[in-house]
Amino acid sequence: MQRLKKIVSYILAVSILLTPAVLMAQEEMYWMEAVSPPFFIHEGELKGQGYEDLITDILKENMPQYDHVSMPANISRHYQQWKQGEPACSLAMHKTRERKEFVLFSIPSVFTLPHVLIIKKEQFAAFGGKKAVSLKDVLTSNNFIIGRAAKRSYGGAFDEILNTFGNQDNLFSYEGSELSLNLFKMLLAGRVQAMPGLPEEAMYLAEKMGIRDQIMTLSVEENLVDHESMLTYVACSKNEWGTRAITVINKVLQEQRPTERYRAAYERWLDESSVAEYRRMYKTIFLQVDEKDAP
Fold it and tell me: Is the peptide bond before 114 cis (omega within 30 degrees of 0)?
């Protein structure tokens, strides 16, 4: 009887070792998610309905070979994970020279309308009373303080002007949790007179706070010269793991970007008047850019 128990125990141990889960252990892939609705929404009735939530879900579903783990993280945590070479990615990042030193980028993953300046309607006349402004002129006038999220990129042209003409008198950089929400509160309190953001970001925050009629957006002339500011990319650690991950991600993006479900993730946050133009640009710009064409 004792010998039989040993045999049974041995068979059980071997069977456990030979299970598919052990034989085919999955690599972990950490998805870093900023706490910044409507990109990612981590709480409330709309939890999981941010457009980056929805697109990340599509990627996860189509990469079953990985064990996907969500990780709320501010931009400083993003940088830390990448520089340490962790198996970590982020869905929608602008390319910058700094980031290319420690990050590998996919083909374009998200296509948005260009960044704008978010202001209070009562400030419209002070900004010139026009729907489009020159960001350079706004900064060099030294009449306004623009609140920006530290280390967040708003696209090449936008960033270059902020970095070139911004100083301690006209630019305030904020680093912390819930960047957009806290900058928005500073805007309402008059501590800053404008903040960069995406149109849907502005309307989400204003609607959530019940002040949509008090907020408006201004187009930035320098941001309309090319389409680079509308494109973001999956970014992963710049190492052997990241190289393999980006190869897989690119394949999924090529398959999924043309689908209605993928496009609808962002459309869900647009006003109806913007949808037709977005679809046109999505087809003629986003779906035409591949790895060799991307800036």
Answer: no
d(CA 169, CA 166) in angstroms, rounded, equals 8
**Rounded-to-integer distance, Cα 233 and Cα 108, Å:** 5
pLDDT, tens only, 240-295: 999 999 999 999 999 999 999 999 999 988 877 788 889 999 999 999 987 545 54
Q: How far is CA 268 from CA 122, 205, 206, in A?
A: 29, 15, 17
Question: Could you give all domains of the chain from N- to C-terminal order, each with its CATH number?
Answer: 10-112+231-288 (3.40.190.10), 116-224 (3.40.190.10)
pLDDT per residue as tens digits for the range 74-103: 888 999 999 999 999 999 999 999 999 999
> Cβ atoms within 10 A of the Cβ of 258, count?
13
**Model confidence, pTM:** 0.75
